[in-house]
Write a structure and sequence with these properties.
By secondary structure, the protein is α/β, with parallel strands linked by helices. About 30% of the residues lie in helices and about 20% in strands. The chain has helices at about 5-15, 35-40, 45-50, 75-85, 90-105, 110-130, 145-150, 155-170, 190-200, 215-230, 275-285, 300-315, 350-355, 455-460; strands spanning about 20, 50-55, 60-65, 175-185, 205-210, 235, 240, 255-265, 290-300, 320-325, 345, 370-380, 410-415, 425-430, 440-445, 465-475, 480-485, 490-495. The strands form three sheets. Strands 4, 5, 6, 7, 8, 9, 10, 11 and 12 form a nine-stranded mixed beta sheet that branches. A five-stranded mixed barrel has the order 13-14-15-17-16. Strands 1-3-2 form a three-stranded antiparallel beta sheet. Helix 5 (about 90-105) packs antiparallel against helix 10, helix 8 crosses helix 9 and helix 11 packs across helix 12 (about 300-315).
Length: about 500
Amino acid sequence: MSEREIISAIKYVSRMKQDFMLSEIRNYIKSEMSTQDIYNIIYPLSFDIGIDVIAQGDDFKVSHAPKGKIELTETELKKNTVFFKSATVSRKLERLIEQYVEKKTAKKWNDPEMLDKIRKAVVAQKSEYWKEGKARNISYEKGYHILGYLAYQFPVYFVQSQHILYKMMQEGLLKKRMTILDVGTGAGTVPLSIVDLYNRLDDHRATIYSIEKYDENIEAYKFLVPEYAGRRSKVSIQEPIKADIKKLDMEKIPDKIDLMVFSNVLNELEGMDTKQKADIVMKLSGKLSEDGNIIIIEPADKVNSIEARKLTIELKERGLGIYGPCSFIWGPGCTPESCWSFEQKPDIKSTRLMQTMADCPESYRYINTDIKYTYAILRKDKLSEKKYRVPSKARFLRFSHLQKHIGKRINVICSLMSSDLANENYSVYKVCDGTSRKSVYAIMPLHNITEENISLRKANYGDILSIENVLVKYNEITDSYNLLVGKGSFIELVEGNL
């Protein structure tokens, strides 16, 4: 019995019926096949055919896959609210990672000698990470490099991916049926995040393709991802494409991708400048559906964050639209020579493997629970998260004119581009209106907080604020401008920016 015959029979019956049982297909084929045999053939193809195949007793119910954007139900919202309040790696996935450690080392996951080797791998990776230029060489070619990553970096990246994807769901950017490509998947962090997130959803499905260069990563991926997804998962996992993203064969990449993810990968490409990295993204964007999304996620440190913003603007100049978090409220794009901007979320709970690894002198070296990241969402259709533009006759000053108003009180409109960066006496927020070449910060001494200006502390990353009656200061040490918020300052969310 050929695959084509079964597909033809499925399509024929689905034209006559909205829903039917898979066992009915046996009446339309010549060979004697069990329902399970038919399922094994059809399930990997169901996404492309546009059907859902769901187990129902000893049979399977076949129905037309719903179209349109994800609309989260109250139940889905509640489940995710609970998760993000105290986010962590699930116990099932924790144990799966521990099993992989045991498989690779032939020792118990908490063996002292083995844990010491993982610690050394973590220290070596961190040391390599902070180097710059040609001296920087981040690699995942050795087994303990992967184990160190799974113990130290993975839990944070696993949760932060879900923060971004869940936000996109809430804003209607993701479809009920998704084709996803994870570029530089590593050990499968993003696919595992998607599986975990979809486990808290009711009737939304995705097929994940991935690209990975290193054999050690692919080995870990094959051990972890299919097993965590399970045979009857809402997420279909495809075999990773082994390739160097610098030398991609585009024939191997699927068409009409709904979501393309570059998570903590572009900053690790050796010897490539911003334009060369943009070449890679633009080349792959040719495979993106017209209403698809590209996510670029990078670490929050200054060097990588600034480089990510430069890359985002380069991609904008080449024709991609920036959905967020940047909003160009004065119209034109910005020139981010020193734009250090990042999102921050609540700390995660450390995994058992991380806690055990950190049970040693200098334990702080091995605990990694804070979530800070720089990200950008790009699209072909130029859809923007924030549609607000400053009216032509509005009495607000552009940041590009701040040097002329040092020591004066002014009114501005800007986006909030950081969480609170300061200490117990001051609140400090990075703000941006897309016009300044220098960094600008809103400074609020805590004794100056009033009902009229507290919106600064309540606003979310990316929100647009009007800030009136603030004093302009220049900081020579950091070569930046400060907007000093006083008791007479008035701050509010700009109407229509949500």
